[in-house]
Hints:
Blueprint: E1 2-7, H1 17-23, E2 28-30, E3 40-42, E4 61-66, E5 82-84, H2 105-115, H3 119-126, H4 132-138, H5 140-147, H6 152-165
Parallel strand pairs: 1-2, 1-4, 3-4, 3-5
Amino acid sequence: MECHIYYEGDDDPEKCTARRLEKFDEATLHRTMGRVPYGVVLNPHADRALSPADAEDGLGTLVALDCSWESAEAASFKMNGVHRALPFLVAANPVNYGRPFQLTTVEALAGACCIFGDRTRAEDLLEPFRWGETFLTLNEEPLRRYSECVNSSDVVAVQNDYLADDEPSSGEEGRS
């Protein structure tokens, strides 16, 4: 699975997971939106949840936006591709540990790879991060269940199980 990232450069360079992915040749950073290839765009504002059925739609390409959460408005995601929102997952990164939906770029890409059934690729992406394995451990059950779904509706049903059991404390609404 190829990983591409539209990089806005507004995060702290020391904490930027996208830059580290580029350094380890795990992803390609694009500083111009027009150069980002067509693929499955991980977009928290998308109307549909990411599911295993989307793996073929992106032609083997995942696309993420790397920007601060403060600037991650819907307009920031105007990239060509199939836009999908990640379902309920919990962050393992030191800044947002335990917070649902507050994932770093690498966590989002790794989560998508797991949903697509490519855990090995997810492990490769997370390997440069001390907390990378923790992300997979924290989300082991939901990632397994999402990867067994047929379509977006099934993923939303699984997500709703988690949201009913553990209402997010940050006030975030569940994404569909």
